[in-house]
Amino acid sequence: MSGIRAHMLASSNAGQDANSDVSAIFDELTVELRSQPKSSSEIRQSAYLQHKADFQELVTKGARLFKLMIAESTSSAQSSFTDVEDLQKWGYDTYNYNDASELRGIDSVLDTIEVSKKSTRLLSPNIPVSHTHKTPVVVEGMLFPATNALLCQVINISDGIIVAYDNFTAQGVNGRKGSRVPPLNHGSDIAYLQWLSKAEPDSNLRFVLRYNVINDGTCFAFDFMESHCGFALTQWPGTTYYPGSNEFNALLESPNGQGVAHMLIQHRK
């Protein structure tokens, strides 16, 4: 009996070991299956859902931004950068940007809004105004290193237009985590001060035109609208979107749109 009992116990232990081995194999198989690459259709669906969520975030934030644009002005919303001398104070030097001497490819746009097309410095009201951030400065005992930011607008005071020609902000160029950028780092503030440097007391800003849009965030908005909203990129006059539409809100919150909105919100006075 003892021999039989011992044999039965050994068989039982062997069975348990076998079950454990099988269980371990199933566990490994489950992990392996979960780690299998998704099918192309699953990848496309996942990418679409993420893009849809990103676009909806632009729409939601753009709607809030427009409300601020039409709300009554409050002192808390106004920028503290209101003096042209702030540019030099924070390390921005004037820069001769020869490429902006001609506004190529937008004649029909300027004709429609009745703005001069000439950009030569001596004969035209269209004046390139450029600044680059290449000078380290110490303000209130704190060192702010150069960031190599470059901001160029073509400004026409008589016709009331800013053409945002080429803009790479300090935050965008040197926005690594932990890096130090000057408080004056938003394109909206700098463009306003550049306008102010040429403006007269009665100057009236009527148009802001973005030239040669290549920003990834803005291009994403256009691409999503083209793929899912029936949008098509066409020659001027293109398509007009009005406040309240998803397309308007998304483009307003895009990197190229929000800079204009912030300038209008924070520099009303």
Helix-strand blueprint:
Elements: H1 2-34, H2 40-70, H3 85-89, E1 92-94, H4 107-112, E2 126-133, E3 137-139, E4 142-144, E5 150-156, E6 161-168, H5 170-173, H6 187-198, E7 207-210, H7 216-228, H8 246-253, H9 255-266
Parallel strand pairs: 6-7
Antiparallel strand pairs: 1-2, 2-5, 3-4, 5-6
Share in helix: 40-55%
- Secondary-structure class: alpha+beta
* Strand line-up in the sheet with most strands: 1-2-5-6-7
How much is the average pLDDT? 84
Shape: globular
Sheet of most strands: 5 strands, mixed
Per DSSP E runs of 2 or more residues, the count of β-strands stands at: 7
Radius of gyration: 30 Å
Q: How widely separated are the two ends?
A: 104 Å
Low-confidence stretches: 2-11
Order of helices and strands: HHHEHEEEEEHHEHHH
> Count of DSSP helices?
9
Strand content: 5-15%
Number of domains: 2
Provide a descriptive summary of the structure in words.
- The protein is α+β, with helices and mostly antiparallel strands and 269 residues long.
- It folds into two domains: 36 residues; 156 residues, no CATH class.
- It has nine helices and seven strands.
- The strands form two sheets. A five-stranded mixed β-sheet has the order 1-2-5-6-7.
- Helix 2 packs across helix 8 and helix 2 packs parallel to helix 9.
- The radius of gyration is 30 Å and the shape is globular.
- The protein starts with a helix and ends with a helix.
- The N terminus is likely disordered.
